[in-house]
């Protein structure tokens, strides 16, 4: 067991700083967004009915940046800057992608321009050393496998691809008030838990403290923004926020996976290596599922697969009887179930506790499915009860007598 002590107070300070700065700046950004005309118009497929300012990502990025730069002067977390350029890379890339998002929030950039900005930001992050530079290959060795190094071109391409996927997934999920901020908060907590565990086991402040620092600042910024964004929202993330959150999530995930070695988790390195990647998949699960269902649905109707409609998952949740807040909370539950079950793999010895693990995950799955379908179940029960009451009332009526001729 490691004797290393996680600098919990310093992480708490980073979290609190991001939360407070983001919360205070969001009102200022809202006023600015209204003045510059960065306001979301009302479209047929939208669930809001009044114009709402966007560009909230500026406050999220500012809170994140202030918290991270403040950490540079802390006794323990300061080592994350002295031994690696990853943190500065996430900040530089975040500034690029947030600027692209602000332009889109105001002028509605075309898809090609936004994609170019995303690739540029991902490239900047890779240039600062945030790269998927090794791949874990499982084997029958006592260590459970071995690490295979990637060359510079492979590392850069995989990093850009993963970052662009997460950026667009976050953008795609931003369909209900508070949904993106909450899902990102939950996913950030999962990444922090895993990377802090990795830091504790390795006891290496210089090589393993970057990922938990990024995650702590991101979680604080998302929580600071959520009171302004939860239904009914007073301001939206906009592309400036959605794309930055996706990039920060990619930076934390890549940083965590790139620091894994066999001495940290031993025979469980295979599971540990997959855990942060599964968390990333948990983030994109809902939007990717929604996207695939949308493509299938539109293609079957003879429509263009990327045409707009009102049948996304969040639209369906509303149509079966959930309020917008209930739908968002259910999506939070699904995100917590997926991310939590993934990260717990780094903490739980499945050879000893597989049954308990499956029981807990299975129970969470039953709860999530039940909550998701409850309005439909309740409507079916009410309809059945009404039919029974109707039949009972009809059977209670007196049978009309038939007169006989005299």
TrEMBL record:
The chain crosses the membrane at residues 12-34, 55-75, 87-103, 115-136, 156-173, 180-201, 207-226, 238-258, 270-296, 327-348, 354-377. GO terms for biological process: cell wall macromolecule biosynthetic process; cell wall organization; lipopolysaccharide biosynthetic process. It is a multi-pass membrane protein. The keyword Lyase does not apply. It comes from the Bacteria. The keyword Aminoacyl-tRNA synthetase does not apply. It is found in: Cell membrane. Keywords: Cell membrane, Magnesium, Membrane, Metal-binding, Transferase, Transmembrane, Transmembrane helix. Mg(2+) binds at residues 171, 239. Its main location: membrane. This is Undecaprenyl/decaprenyl-phosphate alpha-N-acetylglucosaminyl 1-phosphate transferase. It comes from Nakamurella flavida.
